[in-house]
Amino acid sequence: MSDTIRIIITGGSGRMGQMLIQQVLQTEGVTLHAVTERTGHDWIGCDIGEAMGGTAIGVLVTDDTLAAAASAHAMIDFTAPDATVDHAGIAAQAKLVHVIGTTGFDTGHLEKLSAAARHAVIIRAGNMSLGVNLLTQLTKQVAAALDEDFDIEIVEAHHNRKVDAPSGTALMLGEAAAEGRGVELDAAADRGRDGITGARERGKIGFHAIRGGDVVGEHDVIFAADGERIVLRHLATDRGIFARGALKAVMWGQGKKPGEYDMLDVLGMKNS
Predict the structure, then answer these.
(1) pLDDT band, residue 239 (cuts 50/70/90)
(2) Cβ neighbours of residue 161 under 8 Å, at least 6 residues apart?
(3) Domain presence at residue 272
(4) Cα distance between residue 250 and residue 170, in whole Å
(5) Terminal Cα-to-Cα distance of the chain (whole angstroms)
(6) Is 232 in the same domain as 246?
(7) Residue 31 within any structural domain of the chain
(8) How crowded is residue 204: how many other Cβ atoms within 10 Å of its Cβ?
């Protein structure tokens, strides 16, 4: 492989796509190889620099992801579940490092990603920031240290255009809490309360989603018992933290064996 890592950004017109493009252009050792969008999008055939309101940079937006993948090294994907699954098949064919920040997957999607990971490096995380991954580890440790006298509630807030709830980060935190407790999240999760619900069931992990304005991302993990509460919190104020994390993942993934990885692998925190 050449010294410069050639990267494809999928969904380049989105807010996260544009942030990723800007981060790639500012980062040494990587180059913006291609930008893709869905067929029929207004940006197809346009120079991405001009489409984003700047000067031309010589990279045209394309809907032919397969052709772009033929000479790339990595793909960064913050799109939608169906699109990401399609991209994973292409990345597997081309043996790309596929960094996935997309959330909202169902079981069928995840099974297809696992199949693709037999042929390519897939690094998938509900959140790419260092702080959130530290919070995930802390959540697991605190949950393991406390018994079910402490109720666990996860509260997350995002901008008003986010389409999935709970957020991928909230689910990461829920998985960490469940792992610390030694239970399965599917069995312990309580995702909705409305009306006369009765008393809170002991051992449940509650989720609450707030949507409004331009909130980048806020997550609280609350451990509440009689007479005391422990609150673990992460506030994201700059979407650039996710782009920087995705670039770190791309660089880490070069030369790794095919398989499924996450940001704890990238950050060397897997066994901490």
Answers:
(1) confident
(2) none
(3) no
(4) 23
(5) 32
(6) no
(7) yes
(8) 17
Question: Both tokens of residue 204?
Answer: 């449940």
Shared domain for 112 and 174, answered yes or no, is no
- Tell me the pLDDT band of 8, cut-offs 50, 70 and 90: very high
Answer positive or negative: Cα dihedral of 198, 168, 162, 245.
Answer: positive
> Which CATH number belongs to the domain containing residue 250 in this structure?
3.40.50.720
DSSP string, the chain: --SSEEEEESSTTSHHHHHHHHHHHHSTTEEEEEEE--TT-TTTTSBHHHHTTS---S-BEES-HHHHHTT-SEEEE-S-HHHHHHHHHHHHHHT-EEEE------HHHHHHHHHHTTTSEEEE-S---HHHHHHHHHHHHHHHHS-TTSEEEEEEEE-TT---SS-HHHHHHHHHHHHHHTS-HHHHEE----SS--SPPTT-EEEEEEE-TT--EEEEEEEEETTEEEEEEEEE--THHHHHHHHHHHHHHTTPPSEEE-HHHHTT-TT-
| Residues in the chain, overall count | 272
Give pTM, 2 decimals.
0.81
Residues designated as active site:
158, 162
Where in the sequence is the domain holding 75, given as residue range(s)? 5-124+239-266
Q: Which residues contact 257 (CB under 8 A, 6 or more apart)?
A: 121
Does the pLDDT of residue 198 top 60, yes or no?
yes
**Mean pLDDT over residues 105-118, rounded?**
97
The long-range contacts involving 263-271, CB below 8 angstroms and separated by at least 24 positions, are 263/123, 263/125, 263/127, 263/128, 263/133, 264/133, 264/136, 264/137, 265/123, 266/123, 267/130, 267/133, 269/133, 269/134, 269/137
Beta carbons of 239 and 19 less than 8 angstroms apart: yes
